[in-house]
Amino acid sequence: MPRTTPLPVRLAACLALLLLGAGLSAAQTDTTRHFTIKAQMWARGEVRHGALPADNGKDYAAFLMGNSIVRLDYTSSWLDVRFAPRFSGIWGSNSTGGLNIDEAWLHLHTGGFFARLGRQKVSYDDERVIGSDDWSMAPLTHDMVKLGFEGGKHKVHLLLAFNQNDEDVNGGTYYVNGGQVYKTMQTLWYHVDPTPWLGASLVGINMGLQSLLTNEYKTRFQQLFGTYVDIHPDPFRLELSYYRQSGHNEYAMSIHAWMASAEASWQATPQLKLRTGYFYMSGDPLYYVPKAGEIGLIRKTEIRGFDPVFGAHHKFYGAMDFFYVSTFYGGNTPGLQDFHVGAKWSPWAPLDLDGSYHFLATSVDIKDGGKILGHELEFTLTWRFAKDAKLSAGYSFMNGTDVMTRLKRTSAKNHLHWGWVMLTVTPEFFKR
Hints:
Elements: H1 7-27, E1 34-49, E2 60-75, E3 79-90, E4 98-110, E5 113-120, E6 142-151, E7 154-162, E8 184-195, E9 198-210, E10 219-231, E11 236-247, E12 254-255, E13 257-269, E14 272-281, E15 302-303, H2 313-316, E16 336-348, E17 351-366, E18 370-386, E19 389-400, H3 402-408, E20 415-425, E21 428-431
Parallel strand pairs: 12-15
Antiparallel strand pairs: 1-2, 1-20, 1-21, 2-3, 3-4, 4-5, 5-6, 6-7, 7-8, 8-9, 9-10, 10-11, 11-13, 13-14, 14-16, 16-17, 17-18, 18-19, 19-20
């Protein structure tokens, strides 16, 4: 292995070889091999109204999209392998989505130790900073090595990634416009369950991004670290999290950002679950959005807006995906506050009804505007009409303020609607 290979990657390769040796010994008497072929296929139709700039009067959209994944899984007493091609796209389009590899990894394991190498999805805790979101047509995956140990009440995972644009021999390690925003990434996650009703995690992420300053061929590093606590004495549950970000972005600006959240739920009856929560994500000060037709700039010297990096954004910031999925005007972020309440009612086994209310606000004042973004209502119905099939439908409505209008640079029309219908099937074609 070349000496230029990063040390963590070399150590990961050595551990993987040790696990492979142990696995080969176990393979001599292995009688637990299994092979399955499964699929996850969905088709979704959406109608959006009022969410796009309406200067031309076309403030609505309607379209159909599809997503198909075939998973080939091999398992044994020491080795697991997954290969999962994906096809996704808007119906009738030749430029959106396409065929790619969703996952392709091998997983070596023995005595509680493991090493997983290849393209994979990662999900930790409540998925706020590291998660996988199957709602979108292109959920986040990583090309990485994941090492770890799981035994008793303890779990320790180490994630290592090094990305490159091509296999050039004279291009150094310059990395921009690749499949991932980061050039290198190292993550350490530790979880402990001291009692049956209490779990706690610590996470630290070091992410290296290629500097975008002129003639500066170096990597800028930023860090995220924090904790997650899950208290769940039946029938109550309380989830708490706190994260901080530091370091420098690709333009060498220092980062000082943070977020905190609290989520509570109560299984009132077998059919009814109630929930509430609040989170705060810091924002960039002196946030200014010029009115339509005006020009205005703010000189930015540091980053105060929290970035939820690899989180499952659709899960947390409102189903209409206005925040952290789509960007704010000017590329900065005013932060976000969200107080929400909701309930899930299952009148009988195949049917679930879910409703939520969100009060949304920025974390910093918008010049000549304030903080309040508006109120969002969300309703979802899910009918599991077969073992491996379900039909879902949803409707969301947002009554936005002038602040929301200015942040998104939309027309003065603040009543935003979104509806969708989705069919999901997960058949198992073969198992042996």
